Amino acid sequence: MLEAITRPAVPAVSRRTVPGAGATELMRSAVAACVALVALGCGVGPAPLPPPPTMPPAPRGEAQCPPAEGQSALLVALARGGVRLEQSAHSVAEAVLRGQAVACWFRTKDGDPGSGVGIFEAAFFPDAASAAAYEGCRRFSGPDQHFLRAGDVIVWTKDLRLFAQLRTVLDATEIDC
């Protein structure tokens, strides 16, 4: 037993002390690095962007809202802001606009057509200057209608909660009609 205590420690044999073992580890590391670089260069990267939102369907028997400039931007802003649309259709308010804009109505996920809760309409003008110059909202505004302008779109609703949400999500300006 005394011999074990006084005997000098013999270094353990490891892969690092075996001649050529370091080169093997270096080669394995180099191969792993090459595989990683190839994988990164072969299309493994950021996720693709989701497709832009599409207009919600029209209710049965209603005409679909015709395409207009500004619809995609509105749909993207609403989706990003958490406003979930269930339906949309061509709005009768378009007749009041006299060809100056396309008008659509929208029902949100919480919408109730009978009460007007969760319902809003939007007029899509060809550009922001046309929307800013339009003053015809007085023709179809009621005492309970609240209007917003966001770029080339004018939006209106009776639902005050939805109005506040739309003003924030669209970064819109309230319009006095």
Summarize, please.
This protein is 34% helix and 21% strand. The mean pLDDT is 80.
**Main sheet properties:** 6 strands, antiparallel
Structure classification: alpha+beta
Average the pLDDT over all residues and give the rounded result. Answer: 80
Q: How many individual helices?
A: 7
Helix content: 25-40%
Distance between the termini: 103 Å
Strand arrangement, major sheet: 1-2-3-5-4-6
Stretches with pLDDT under 50, minimum 5 residues: none
Rg, nearest Å: 33 Å
Describe this structure in words.
By secondary structure, this protein is an alpha+beta fold. The protein folds into two domains: 11-47; 71-175, no CATH class. The chain contains seven helices and six strands. Strands 1-2-3-5-4-6 form a six-stranded antiparallel beta sheet. The model has no long low-confidence stretch (mean pLDDT 80).
Descriptive keywords:
177 residues, alpha+beta, 6-stranded antiparallel sheet, 7 helices, 34% helix
Summarize the helices and strands and which ones pair or pack:
Blueprint: H1 2-6, H2 21-41, H3 71-80, E1 85-90, H4 94-97, E2 102-112, E3 117-124, H5 128-133, H6 137-140, E4 146-150, E5 153-157, H7 160-170, E6 173-175
Antiparallel strand pairs: 1-2, 2-3, 3-5, 4-5, 4-6
